[in-house]
Amino acid sequence: MAQDGPQPGWKGLLGAEATKFVGQETHDIHLTDFFGEDGRNRVRQAGHCIAPFVTTLIWQETPPPATPDMSNVWTPTNEPSGDFTLTIQGMNLPIQNLNPPTIQVNQPAWLHMGAQMPGIVNVGGVAQTGYLLPWFTKIRVDYHPEGQARNLHYYKHEARTSHMQPPRYKIVNPVHREIEALEYGTHVQAYRRAIRR
């Protein structure tokens, strides 16, 4: 799989997250350079929809070697959960963008703003350590193993032909970008965006 080379510090929209259909998943964010980490396990972040508008962030790993189409067998891993800071920065509901602009939406009592703690989530009957992403909020995700900020790697998926189709990595004209941090939120639809630190 020919790569166009990572673009460090890239920022921009990364498309929608798996958020509407239970069982839907994305896994295009990697903690390591899939093709550049010889001899080490590859680790990726998976977004998994467990209820409508409720997504979990979990992690999966695969041993080397790297397959050209990235079709390795991936298994759950809890190891990276302490290397992330996930911060809920505020509410971001579509109704707030409608006229009149004076409409205010009250914060639910269960929603805790600020840094979040990882917890145990049930994904397909398997208990894993991960984070809940309550949608209609604005959330920032930073990766800092051993206290050092590190970039994440984005490998673009092919366009889906159905909601529940397992995502496949883009093989023809592949896209690989290095990103510094992630932002999740709502603007017309649920979005993900690469941002700067």
Describe the structure in your own words.
The protein is an all-beta fold. It has a domain at 12-82 and 116-134 and 144-180. 0% of the residues lie in helices and 43% in strands. The chain contains no helices and 14 strands. The chain has strands at residues 12-15, 25-30, 42-51, 54-62, 75-77, 84-91, 114-115, 119-123, 126-134, 137-143, 152-155, 176-179, 181-187, 189-195. Strands 2, 3, 4, 5, 8, 9, 11 and 12 form an 8-stranded antiparallel beta sheet that branches.
Distance between the termini: 30 Å
Query: Helix content range of the residues, please?
Result: under 10%
Strand content: 35-45%
Overall shape: it is globular
**Overall pLDDT metric:** 80
Structural class by helix and strand composition: mainly beta
What is the H-and-E element order? EEEEEEEEEEEEEE
Largest sheet entry: 8 strands, antiparallel
**Number of strand elements:** 14
Q: Uncertain runs with pLDDT below 50, 5 residues or more?
A: none
Tally of alpha and pi helices: 0
Based on CA atoms alone, the radius of gyration comes out at 17 Å
